[in-house]
Design brief:
heterodimer; A: 77 residues; alpha+beta; two-stranded antiparallel sheet; two-stranded antiparallel ribbon; B: 279 residues; 12 helices
Chain lengths: 77, 279
């Protein structure tokens, strides 16, 4: 069983302030996770990572939910 | 009894042996302390990135049998966990006070980092809870100590909601805490179910059993089936009753808790031939 390729472009990502972590909340399989880069700040920028690519079913809800279009998903080769 | 009970239980289940719940004492061992430190002090970044990197490295599932064996072996010196039913949870939570250890309540990392949800249902014992709080920074603002009575009440409430209790070890057999888990958030259940790593979430010592005489199928909307995180319940449309698949069942007991007719009980895993070696 091969996995989807999921890429999050952190250059385009505006989480958490301007998007309410839509990718994290929309993904039905909870592929994505986030963490604050600086835990000492409430308003720290966050890192978004696709942690469970094997769970991804290619529904692309994350791609649609992300306004700045920071996420791309491609099927296994 | 699972292999860890045989090795570490001294006549009882490994996680019920009070010697294994003395985390303050385990802390005195430099090796165990360093495992606790690397688990706690890495914080959310280490947790998320470790899972991401392990899954990035693996090109294809399933893992080979050798790889799984190696991962299970490795987890024994590091971290892993086992599903436990409520009665075992309660017994575990009564033990820290014997050693003058506090219980620290914190947010569930799985629901927070994978779901953006804050749910204060994860408990660890002293001194681990204090270590964890350091690395959480502003995320620890709701962290607090709770009494064993509060901890037990919380677990009872979670159980009614359908959350599965999971006891975590740090360097087997040291019990480090209990979490109230659920899919799709719980990373240990997912690691077990998707990657097949048994020691991420070993099944409990029990299997659910449904009394057909008491089961009326909830009028076609079986509450047990809705509650089961693992898909272990099948519904017989023709007979209008629910059936547990013992090869899938993790023996958590949430179905038992949700059944309006009290038709479900937990029996020893060892009494079910097809399930007794399926950990």
């Amino acid at each position: 069983m091969k996995k989807y390729s999921i890429f999050v472009d952190m250059g385009k990502c505006v989480a958490p302030k301007n998007c309410d972590l839509k990718c994290i909340k929309t993904c039905p399989l909870k592929v994505f996770a986030y963490y604050p880069i600086d835990t000492s700040r409430e308003d720290s920028p966050v890192m978004i990572t696709a942690t469970f690519p094997f769970s991804c079913n290619g529904c692309n809800l994350c791609v649609a939910a992300c306004e700045p279009k920071a996420i791309s998903v491609s099927p296994p080769k | 009894m699972c292999q860890y009970c045989v090795e570490h239980g001294q006549g009882t289940k490994w996680y019920l042996n009070p010697k294994n719940i003395n985390l303050k004492k385990a802390w005195e061992d430099a090796n165990i302390r360093s495992v606790m430190e690397s688990l706690a002090l890495g914080g959310p970044k280490a947790l998320v990135e470790t899972i991401a990197s392990v899954n990035a490295l693996v090109e294809e599932l399933p893992y080979s049998k050798d790889a799984l064996e190696a991962l299970n072996k490795m987890s024994e010196g590091a971290n892993g966990g086992q599903v436990v039913p409520l009665e075992d949870t309660i017994q575990i939570l009564k033990t820290p006070q014997k050693f003058d250890m506090k219980i620290g309540l914190t947010y569930c990392a799985c629901r927070k980092h994978w779901g953006g949800q804050n749910k204060m249902v994860c408990m660890h014992f002293e001194p681990f809870c204090d270590l964890l709080k350091k690395s959480q920074g502003t995320l620890s603002k709701y962290d607090r100590y709770i009494t064993p009575e509060e901890a037990i009440e919380l677990c009872k409430d979670c159980y009614k909601e359908g959350l599965v209790q999971w006891v975590q070890w740090c360097s087997m057999p040291n019990v480090i805490g209990i979490c109230n888990c659920e899919l799709p958030y719980c990373i240990v259940f997912r690691t077990r179910l998707i990657s097949g790593v048994r020691n991420a979430a070993i099944k409990s010592h029990y299997i659910a059993q449904i009394d057909q005489n008491k089961c009326d199928g909830c009028g076609g909307s079986p509450q047990c089936l809705l509650a089961c995180n693992f898909g272990a319940i099948r519904f017989s449309r023709l007979e209008q009753y629910s059936v547990v698949d013992p090869t899938v069942c993790f023996g958590c007991g949430v179905c038992r808790e949700r059944c309006p007719n009290k038709a479900i009980s937990l029996i020893d895993r060892e009494s079910v031939a097809v399930a007794k070696d399926l950990w």
